[in-house]
Design a protein that fits this description.
about 45% helix, about 260 residues
Length: about 260
C-alpha cells in the first residue's frame, strides 16, 4: 500500500515533516479543502463564498442550505468557480434515492453523499442512476461517496442505537460495503481514515469532517483531528466549516489551514 503520509489519493504531495510547505504545496491543498457553508440562506452563503474565491476550491452545501434554496444554490456556487459538494446523506428506498441522484446530477453537483447504512441495493441504485443521469444531461458524473459513521457519534452513542461494534470497526465495515457497491469513496472521521485508506486503495475518495485546527474547540464533534493529522492519515479531502466561516477573516483562516494541511 502506498504510504499516504507523503502523497494523497490524487497525487498531491505534502511537505515532509520538519520543513515549511512551499507555495505550490499550499496552493494544491486548496483543492483538498472543502469549506462547509452551514449557513441559513442563500444570500449569506453566497456572501461567504465570495470571500473565499481563489482561497478554497470546494464548498459544501448541507441540508439547511439546500432545503432553504433548492438546486439553484449549486448552480450559483459553481458560477463563482467552486466545485460543490452536496451533503444530504441520502438514505431511503432505492427508488427515492435514484430520483434524488438524478436531480443532484442535473443540478451540477460535483460530489454528493449517500448513507452507507441504506444498504447495497440502495447504493448500487445510486451509482446506476447517477451514471444514467450524466449520460442523459451530457455532464460528467458527480462522485458518489457513502457516509459511514457520523463524527458526532462515539462508541457509547452507537451502543444506544443497537450497534455493538466500536465506531472504528463500524466505519470500516460500512466502507467495505460502499466499495463493494461501486461507490467512489466514503466519508469517515479522521480517526478511521488510515484504516479506510488501506482498505479502499490509493484512488478512492476519503473525505473527512471533524477536522479542527490545532487548539480549536471541537464543538459537537466526538472524533476529531487536526488538518495535518487527517492528511497524514490518508484523507483526500477535509471538510472544515466553523473554523473558517466563523472567523473574522475567513479567507485568512482558510489560508492558515491550507498551510497546516501541508505541514
Amino acid at each position: 500500500m502506498e504510504e499516504m503520509n507523503s502523497s494523497s489519493a490524487e497525487g498531491i504531495v505534502s511537505a515532509p515533516r520538519g520543513r515549511a510547505a512551499s507555495k505550490n504545496e499550499t496552493d494544491e491543498m486548496k483543492d483538498r479543502m472543502i469549506v462547509a457553508l452551514d449557513l441559513p440562506d442563500g444570500s449569506s452563503a453566497i456572501e461567504m463564498a465570495r470571500t473565499l474565491v481563489g482561497t478554497a476550491g470546494w464548498v459544501k452545501v448541507g441540508m439547511t442550505l439546500f432545503y432553504a434554496e433548492g438546486p439553484s444554490i449549486v448552480r450559483e456556487l459553481r458560477s463563482l468557480g467552486f466545485k460543490v459538494f452536496v451533503d444530504l446523506k441520502l438514505h431511503d428506498i432505492p427508488h427515492q434515492v435514484e430520483g434524488a441522484c438524478r436531480m443532484l446530477t442535473r443540478a451540477g453537483a460535483d460530489m454528493f453523499t449517500v448513507h452507507a447504512f441504506g444498504g447495497r441495493a440502495m447504493l448500487e441504485s445510486a451509482m446506476s442512476a447517477t451514471a444514467d443521469a450524466a449520460r442523459k444531461f451530457g455532464t460528467k458524473p458527480p462522485s458518489v461517496i457513502a457516509v459511514t459513521v457520523l463524527t458526532s457519534l462515539d462508541d457509547a452513542a452507537l451502543e444506544t442505537m443497537g450497534v455493538e461494534r466500536p465506531a472504528a470497526e463500524q466505519a470500516v465495515m460500512l466502507a467495505t460495503l460502499a466499495r463493494d457497491s461501486g461507490c467512489d469513496g466514503v466519508v469517515c472521521s479522521p480517526n478511521e481514515a488510515a484504516a479506510v485508506r488501506a482498505l479502499l486503495g490509493a484512488e478512492a475518495l476519503v473525505v473527512t469532517p471533524g477536522v479542527r485546527p490545532a487548539g480549536d474547540a471541537v464543538g459537537d464533534q466526538a472524533r476529531t483531528a487536526t488538518p495535518a493529522e487527517a492528511i497524514a492519515a490518508g484523507a483526500s479531502h477535509l471538510v472544515i466549516g466553523r473554523p473558517i466561516t466563523g472567523a473574522s477573516d475567513p479567507a485568512a483562516a482558510a489560508r492558515a489551514i491550507r498551510t497546516e494541511m501541508s505541514s
